Amino acid sequence: MPAYPNPGNVYAGAGPNMLAEPVRADKALVYVPNTNSDDVSVIDPNTYRVVGTFPGGPEPQHVIPSYNLRTLYVASDEVPDGGLVPVDPRTGKPGAFRKLEDVYNLYFTPDGRQAIVVAEAYQRLDFYDLASWQRVRSVRFPECKGVNHMDYSADGKIMMFSCEFANRMLVLDTASLRKLREFTLPAATDGMPQDTRLTPDGQHFLVADMHANGVYVFDAQATRQTGFVPTGKGAHGIYFSRDGKLAYVTNRDAGSITVLDLATLKPATTWKIPGGGSPDMGSLSADGTTLWLSGRYHNEVYALRTSDGKLLARIPVGKGPHGLTIWPQPGRYSLGHTANIR
Asked: In what order do the strands lie in the sheet with 193-198?
């Protein structure tokens, strides 16, 4: 994993408009995978209009920037016919579908040599050589039903995964994939852990839980749970402001976004989607002024101004929009998902 430009902020290389040289010529577009209509809506972020649609494979779930930021991958996970659709970010055009087993989500090893396919239906992590897309190893965790979202510690030595349908979290050694720890979340919530992110200071893992209606807090090495922050019904996605001071937590069932002050890990404010909505997953514009989110149950996309939460646009798209990505984004390399760029 490359050294950090600022040891106090693991995302310092992804600050406002800090676009890597190869990324600067990429086309400004928002890619929206529509899980229920098996396509991808393409939005012009300047006009807030859909400018194209292309096939996303069976049940497209997320659009993921590659480790080197030169390809976007649409991950589709319908069993047994899932796979990846590569997209050229310079043109916004898709390439040929590559069949892979159950690509619910996609991450990358810290050294950038392998892709990690999160095979949710099989409780597996499948590792692929990025040069050949041949599977080189596979590890199954039967106790982790619905293996889902993950992130790395600041040094990249451990990885923390959510088990969406098992009410627990797994902590693995990145090199050996040996299970170091597991946490069973409070049974009273019948938890459903979702997005898992390391805070910019590298001191906490945050885990959004849809049934607990808030965010669990773990320490820097995921050795213990240290807190819980109520946010709203259906807490789902976690995104960080470009200056590393705030976290935006989407509350899908409440139709709101909670803004956390990362210095205190307490809510600073909550933004409601006017008229209701179902904010799910997304990412921030390169300058950090706009938060783009899919409206999972409303077949629309939201663009919100990060200075005050004002809804700038709601854009009709396909059916069941999920893990959207706006491109280009700042950063040096991608660890996967829609916006985990350091």
From this structure: 193-198, 204-209, 214-219, 225-230
Whether 5 maps to a domain, the answer reads no
| C-beta of residue 162 within 8 angstroms of C-beta of residue 150 | yes
Q: Cβ–Cβ contacts within 10 Å for residue 123, how many?
A: 19
CA distances 331 to 4, 54, 146, 154, 328, Å, are: 11, 27, 29, 15, 10
Each of the 342 residues of the chain gets a pLDDT tens digit; together they read 776 566 689 999 999 999 999 999 999 999 999 999 999 999 999 999 999 999 999 999 999 999 999 999 999 999 888 999 999 999 999 999 999 999 999 999 999 999 999 999 999 999 999 999 999 999 999 999 999 999 999 999 999 999 999 999 999 999 999 999 999 998 667 889 999 999 999 999 999 999 999 999 999 999 999 999 999 999 999 999 999 999 999 999 999 999 999 999 999 999 999 999 999 999 999 999 999 999 999 999 999 999 999 999 999 999 999 999 999 999 999 999 998 999
- Classified as helix, coil or strand, 306 is coil
Q: What's the rounded Cα separation, in Å, for the pair 120 and 60? A: 13
Quick check: is 188 in a domain? yes
* Number of domains composing the chain: 1
Could you tell me the CATH number of the domain that includes residue 156?
Answer: 2.130.10.10
Quote the tokens at residue 92: 């916004």
Say if residues 293 and 281 touch (Cβ distance below 8 Å): yes
Long-range contacts of 38-46 (CB under 8 A, 24+ apart): 38/76, 39/318, 40/74, 40/85, 40/94, 40/318, 41/301, 41/317, 41/318, 41/321, 42/92, 43/301, 43/315, 43/317, 45/285, 45/290, 45/292, 45/303, 45/326
What does the DSSP 8-state code read for residue 163? E
